[in-house]
UniProtKB/TrEMBL annotation:
Stated name of the protein: Uncharacterized protein
Superkingdom in the source lineage: Bacteria
Domain spans labelled Baseplate J-like C-terminal: 297-368
Organism, as annotated: Sporosarcina luteola
Domain Baseplate J-like central: 211-280
Matches recorded under Pfam families: Baseplate_J, Baseplate_J_C, Baseplate_J_M
Annotated Baseplate protein J-like barrel domain residues: 111-189
Length: 377
């Protein structure tokens, strides 16, 4: 069961109106028991006003008690409390991790002897964030190019997103090297894991008590590798021993080869069954075009605001469509979102309904949203 499907509950009553009524009723009952007289506290009564101030303290105290007690449950725990619940199931919050990429390093001339690209060789994009090699790499005799992995020196997401060719300067110059350039978009840098992501992994932790094997266990271990993974599909081709991990990252981004290589290495023999061959891969892209014309009611008093909201809804649809593996291309969802944002009528030319498999993800190519004008209700 998903955490979101668990029912909410409270340890103590926290409804302010009910608490205030209980305090007023307690006072009236106590007054009658002490004096034998019925005293009704009407709104505006000085005693009732005083009891309101006491009720406020009671409400705040109950809310604190309620929240403190609920910190013992994964669905509600935050910060250090959630860390302690994770430790019970040997699941720990991800700390900052640096981005990685691959660099193509080129020499001016071939050499009859091997040459060393030393550990710590640094490269940088124009904004000055350094990437470096972590180990020595050997350029073989006769070779003029070598591909070397490089890691960002600053942990976190700050090193992500440098497209191929943007990291193109060598900090430490070597006489036999003439150029270096990244061939992958830098990726894999994550900030310290937030509560929502970590909470889901803690909830899934029992799936990882054994080696990967069941689908849920593979998902658990993959999410433990990187919180950048937003969606994952697992399937095996019968009789092959191959376990395909189809991985999609945050914001619908595809994983680079460096990221997939890291995920493959993470599934060591201690995690995967020896008979399984794990094959991480990016989903295949199914491109689609989106063309729609919308109309808004003539009764709208602020058309520009409504149009802005419809533009936002259109972009939300594009994001929604690419953010999940196997999500069918659904023009009805586009109409729904634009109508919800304020459109009176929506004519969608493209896309058309298209089935997307569990190894594919839809991605927009050419998009065009046109304002058709205003119409009477």
């Amino acid at each position: 069961m998903k955490l979101s499907e668990l029912p909410d509950f409270d340890f103590v009553e926290i409804n302010p109106e009910q608490i205030i009524n209980e305090i007023v009723e307690d006072y009236q009952r106590a007054y009658f028991e002490d004096t034998g007289e019925v005293k009704k506290l009407y709104p505006g009564d000085k005693i009732r006003i005083f009891l309101y101030t006491q009720a406020l303290r009671e409400i705040q105290l109950r809310q604190k008690i309620n929240d403190t007690a609920k910190q013992n449950f994964v669905k509600y725990a935050r910060n250090e409390k959630l860390d302690h619940l994770g430790a019970k199931v040997k699941t720990y919050r991800e700390e900052d991790k640096p981005a990685r990429t691959r660099m193509k390093v080129t020499a001016s001339l071939s050499s009859p002897v091997a040459r060393i690209i030393s550990a710590g060789q640094r490269f940088m994009p124009p904004d000055g964030i350094f990437f470096r090699t972590e180990t020595d790499h050997v350029m073989a005799p006769g070779e003029t190019e070598i591909i070397v992995p490089a890691v960002c020196e600053v942990p976190g997401s700050v090193g992500n997103g440098y497209a191929p060719g943007q990291i193109n300067s060598m900090v430490e110059q070597q006489p036999f090297l003439i150029s270096a350039v990244n061939i992958d978009t830098s990726q894999g840098g994550v900030d310290r894991e937030d509560d929502d992501s970590f909470r889901e992994r803690v909830h899934m932790a029992p799936e990882g008590f054994s080696v990967a094997g069941p689908e849920a266990a593979y998902i658990y271990h993959a999410l433990a590798y990187s919180s950048l993974i937003s969606d994952i599909k697992v399937y095996s081709e019968k009789g092959t021993g191959v376990v395909n991990l189809i991985v999609l990252l945050e914001n619908g981004e595809l994983p680079t080869k460096s990221f997939l290589d890291g995920l493959y290495n993470y599934f060591t023999k201690d995690i995967r069954p020896l008979t399984d061959f794990v094959k991480p891969q990016a989903p295949s892209i199914v491109e689609y075009d989106a063309h729609a014309t919308y109309y808004i009611p003539s009764s709208v008093t602020d058309p520009s605001t409504v149009r802005d909201e419809i533009e936002v809804a259109f972009n939300e649809y594009l994001f929604w469509q690419k953010s999940k593996i196997g999500r069918d291309i659904n023009p009805s969802e586009l109409v729904f979102k634009l109508r919800k944002a304020g459109a009176k009528r929506v004519d969608v030319t493209l896309p058309i309904d298209t089935v997307i498999t569990d190894s594919q993800v839809a991605r927009d190519k050419n998009v065009n949203l046109v304002f058709g004008g205003m119409e009477d209700d």
